[in-house]
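To start, an entry.
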Amino acid sequence: NVEAQVSCEQWAFTESKTEHGVWEAIVSSLKTCESELSPNVNVPKNIENAADDEGKFASPYYVTLFNKILKKVFCNGGQYSESRFWGERLLIIHEFLHLSAKAKQLLIRLFLRKRKWLPVDKLSYPDISQPLQPLFEELSRAGLVDSSHTSLHDVEEAINLLHAPSLKTVAKHFRLDVTKAKNELSRLLVQFASQKNVFGITMEKKLLHKVKQELGSCFRLRQEVITLFSALFTLYSPSDMNPALLFDQPSINLPSHFLFVMLQLGIDKIRFPAPHNPPLINIYTDLEKLFSYVRAKEMEVEIARWTQQGMWTDIIRSARTARDHFEHSFSTQRSFIESLPPYLRRFTDAHIYMRCITHGVGAFERVRNYEEAVAWLEYLLYGEQFKSIFCFHRGEWWDRLALNLHFHLKDKDRAMKAVVDGLEDQLVGDKDRLLLQEISVVLVNTCDFLVGNGFGMFLVVQEMELRSNVMSKYWLCFTISKIKDSKKVGFFPEALQASVCLVIHYTVSVSAGLHAEGTLWHTVFGLLFYNIIFDSDIENVWFSETQMNPADLNDRNFYAHRQDLFELRFKEIEESNIDDLLREMENIYNLHYGVTNSEISWECFTDFKQISVSNVLQTFHFKLHTCFG
């Protein structure tokens, strides 16, 4: 036993020494790599051209920027700059750095497209090399790609790679009916593969051999390489690698899009409010936590693709898997998740699985299986594991639960209970609480039922008089509630929704205006508080120079973390006159105009003069005086 222990310790020491040697070689190579864009780099017109197979660039900007990502992760200190964090995965980076220049370009281009088997003779990268076979063989020797000759074992997968003429050639070889359509012919070949000859042996092996002959050389990026590269991109910019972006921009490839954004930033085509070189996100204490997060994101990427294709059954199947993964992740990593600030929990695998479960709810609703949708919402809302960890979506979940019960399942009693439980949920914000109150009005036509019976805690929304100097001919009141007759307007305190007031106002007395909803107020607020909102001195909220906003912008503690600065600024505004505020805002406007962020819409006003001549700032200033008064 002692000898075995000594032998094990010697092996571990040798392995550690080997990893350290690989690590030193990686760092040495990265220090000599070009990681800054050349001034004469050719810029593609858009992201589609940037990732296009036919794109021709004098300078492979994607290699330069890829090196920049590697250098920051591995050479900037911290836990990611230690060999023990990465372990044997360092060999992948080592092999990549020792590839030829053309092979590096090809490998990165493969990473920037969907992983699948690629026939070499069907690929065209004229800006890299022609032919590509020698480069693929170099990648195969380095262990970075799979070859169809050694790794393609699934007959059905191989058959699906064939084009129609090749399918007919294979079918003819085995004396099958070649008059069938492509899909029928594929099914026929799959069935033929399972047939047995007189010796009881299936035809699968012979068929696979023939299919591979027709395919020629095919290669596919190894999954381990994709996971590692995705992890590196995630560390560099977790917000840009967020798969939730794909539900609004389904056509983009996240790594490709991110490199294009980095390119635009590097040549001063775009600006962000983030500091130039912020520290990396540091929440991953070991490689497994990081890889678990990356694998969870891969699941959501698939769900985003299926959502665009309307493949609701596949989404439901994936959501069921996500539910199992969530239970395991939460049970094993609860203390780790709870130790993180709420705004950083979204960068964990458990949070991604929670989002996948929510996508499953939406899929159940799409196929009109409202019973299952309700059951899953109740799982999210009543499960203890969600209450203290992921609270940002609870108001939305209560709203969906009540609507499904009332409108789709016609279960008024359960819908009312959902409203009551939602109103009593201390984690539900005021905005969502108001929406639940609206549903209660629909259910019982009055709030007295709930209030009189001691249920819930209702918000009282102070009504706002819109006097005649603001809206001619009308004296209206505004509150967040439904009314029976939105056309009924008179000189009495009739409660109307804001949208109704707006329509009346524009119909009666306005010939031109700006339909911007909250954008206008966000823009004015952003100009007044720019240096506080985008303060680069706040720690653990800036992780990449391409961030549009601090990571905690929508967190409930955003104000608390900057309370002293906000209150000082409020006091300054209170004591300032309009002209002084306009001059300050104009300075901010001119200094930061065009900076891409999520708070200010520069297109909201044609120029700053439009802000100064409008009464937007005066109204904002009056509100602050009223609040302080």
Observations:
- Residues 299 and 318 are 7 Å apart (CA to CA).
- The chain has 31 helices and six strands.
